[in-house]
Design goal:
Layout: H1 2-26, H2 34-39, H3 46-57, H4 60-73, H5 79-102, H6 107-114, H7 117-151, H8 153-156, H9 175-199, H10 201-230, H11 235-245, H12 268-278, H13 281-288, H14 293-309, H15 311-314, H16 316-325, H17 334-342, H18 348-383, H19 389-410, H20 420-444, H21 450-476, H22 485-509, H23 532-550, H24 553-556, H25 565-576
Helix pairs in contact: 1-10, 1-18, 3-10, 3-13, 3-14, 3-18, 4-16, 5-12, 5-14, 5-23, 6-7, 6-20, 7-9, 7-18, 7-19, 7-20, 7-21, 9-18, 9-19, 10-11, 10-16, 10-18, 12-20, 13-18, 14-23, 16-17, 18-19, 20-21, 20-22, 21-22
Length: 577
């Protein structure tokens, strides 16, 4: 009973502390103008940008899902984190200067400047549908499942019955579990909505930064206590023990049977990383609020450095769990089992609060971005071009509220899915690839026309959807087979190449009337950070070194054994004859 009180008390205290600090730091912010509400008044410095980028990315999908993947496939799954460091270098040096020069608030707005209003409309609708129907409900569902497990809400409430109630989505979930799921989803959703709808982007960024610090502390504590459980004379000794016991788990080059095959690092995996960190509205919106290009580059590159270190809390715990428990538990149980067994009980409430922070960050960032896309890309552009700032902000808050309620209603219905993490990865490819191809061509080609961009967006989305839901179920027998990762990622790479080639071909045969010239909107200081290139190159070297250090190429490319002596004796006479 005392342990439960300590856990619950520390959870409530830390969660309330983050809210209080965020309110104190943002209570005087400008929430009455579009720039103030959607772009934090273009006042974000490097530290806030880095912290917000990190925690918006980190949530239960990564903590539970990626550590579960490491439990199964080993260190090769670090690709999702380490390659992100390289992608953020490209964001800082290539994409960010072009975004800030345009003075945009959304990616669709950039595409309108480059191509036209129809391209913006199509992209806005794709983003809104993807975030509303896929991202937000999954964040709420996985967050609720993770939180209820860590806090043992069922035990706290004294619920012991296991009878399945009518209305529960599957026979494996009891009525009590389903009720707790609904309650936890709505609790997380309401708290996150308050941050996102009534606070604006700076409130999101500040709360992200505070929670980010807690997440890093909690994540490294779990690694520390986990390695202590492994044994040895220290951290490095424990790591060596694990590597000697399971050398196959410490190969950075994943085989074709893994969830991240090595060859896909140069196709689908790389493209998904580039879209996520260079074009995904939910993630990069905080970079649009940078006070200057210098601060924006600092924040993005700082986040890149942190992503290179992220495998310590997103991959290593999965390896520790495999060493401690072997195949006695399921992949996605690895992280929760490790936390439950190695973390001292007084710290469980603190870590649960950190988890809530990660969940809230992903939810409120996606909600804020979706409201921004609607109010600026649909309400103002399509419905009310003459709307005042007050009306635009009002529309964003109303849409955000409706969207939050819809997401909180849909999220519990996801119970019973075979693989939520696999489902999310599949869905990301639907809109990541076509949007990224259009943004990239818009930047590298001055002649690519609007019609080419519009066709690429619609066709790319449709082709990938047909492959996932039409062709693949007929060939693989089910829609989301993890063993299909090798083919899925290469398919995404092929679609991307075709979309880019099509747009560049259209730039030759049906170019726009005049070459596109990007104008400086003059909203921020465009002086580059002097250390941007050296730091960026350094991060690329670090990423390459990590892969080289852990590479065991003989696993991926086995050498052909030389012919035996007996074979040589038989072959030579035959050749002479």
């Amino acid at each position: 009973m005392l342990e439960t009180i300590i856990t619950l008390g520390s959870f409530v205290f830390f969660t309330a502390l983050v809210g209080a600090i965020t309110w104190v730091l943002t209570r005087k912010d400008d929430h009455s103008s579009s720039a103030g509400y959607f772009l934090a008044g273009r006042s974000l410095t490097g530290g806030y940008i880095a912290g917000s980028l990190m925690l918006t990315n980190l949530s239960t999908e990564q903590l539970v899902g990626l550590n579960g993947a490491a439990f199964k496939d080993g260190i090769c799954v670090m690709a999702w984190e380490v390659l992100a460091g390289a992608s953020l270098v490209i964001m800082a040096l290539f994409f960010l200067p072009r975004y800030l020069k345009s003075g945009i608030a959304t990616i669709p707005e950039y595409l309108e400047n480059r191509f036209g209003d129809s391209t913006r409309a199509i992209t806005s609708l794709i983003f809104i549908v993807a975030y509303a129907g896929i991202l937000l409900p999954i964040i709420l569902y996985t967050g609720a499942m993770g939180l209820s497990g860590i806090l043992d809400i069922k035990g706290i409430l004294g619920i012991t019955q296991d009878a399945t109630a009518s209305g529960a989505p599957d026979a494996g979930m009891s009525g009590a579990d389903y009720g707790i799921l609904w309650g936890t989803v709505w609790l997380i959703g309401i708290i996150g909505s308050v941050y996102a709808i009534f606070g604006g982007l700076r409130t999101v960024a500040v709360s992200d930064t505070i929670n980010g610090f807690g997440l890093l502390v909690g994540g490294f504590l779990i690694v520390y206590f986990g390695l202590q459980a492994v044994g040895g004379d220290g951290i490095f000794s424990a790591l060596n023990t694990m590597q000697e016991a399971h050398p196959e788990k410490f190969n950075s080059l994943g085989p074709s049977t893994s969830s991240v095959p090595f060859t896909t690092l140069f196709s689908g995996v790389l493209l998904l990383n580039l879209f996520y960190w260079c074009t995904n509205q939910q993630i990069i919106q905080r970079t649009f609020g940078a006070s200057s290009l210098k601060e924006g580059q600092k924040g993005v590159l700082m986040a890149g450095g942190l992503k290179v270190l992220a495998p310590m809390i997103l991959v290593v715990p999965g390896l520790i769990a495999y060493h401690l428990y072997g195949d006695t538990i399921a992949n996605d149980q690895a992280y929760g089992e490790l936390v439950k067994n190695v973390l001292p009980k007084p710290l469980v409430g603190f870590f649960a609060a950190v988890m809530v922070g990660a969940i809230l960050s992903s939810f409120n960032s996606a909600l804020n971005s979706t409201a921004t896309l609607f109010s600026l890309g649909v309400y103002k552009q399509m419905l009310h071009p003459d709307a005042t700032d007050d009306r635009v902000i009002w529309s964003g808050k109303v849409f955000g509220t409706i969207l939050a309620i819809v997401s909180m209603t849909i999220a519990p219905l996801l119970a019973g899915q075979e693989s939520i993490f696999g489902y999310l990865q599949k869905m990301n490819g639907l809109y990541f690839i076509p949007i990224f191809s259009v943004v990239l061509v818009g930047m590298i080609s001055k002649r690519a026309p609007k019609i080419a961009a519009d066709i690429a967006l619609i066709t790319g989305f449709a082709v990938i959807a047909i492959f996932y839901f039409g062709i693949q179920p007929l060939t693989a027998g089910k829609s989301f087979d993890l063993n299909q990762s090798f083919y899925d990622f290469h398919f995404l790479g092929l679609v991307f190449i075709i979309l880019v080639a099509f747009q560049l071909l259209m730039a030759l045969v049906a170019p726009r009337d005049t070459p596109y010239v990007q104008e400086d909107a003059g909203v921020v200081d465009m002086t580059s950070w002097p250390f941007a290139w050296p730091v960026g190159i350094g991060l690329i070297v670090v990423v390459s070194s990590i892969y080289i250090y852990f590479a065991k190429p003989e696993v991926i490319f086995p050498l052909v054994p030389p012919p035996s002596a007996e074979a040589a004796e038989v072959t030579i006479p035959e050749l002479e004859s």
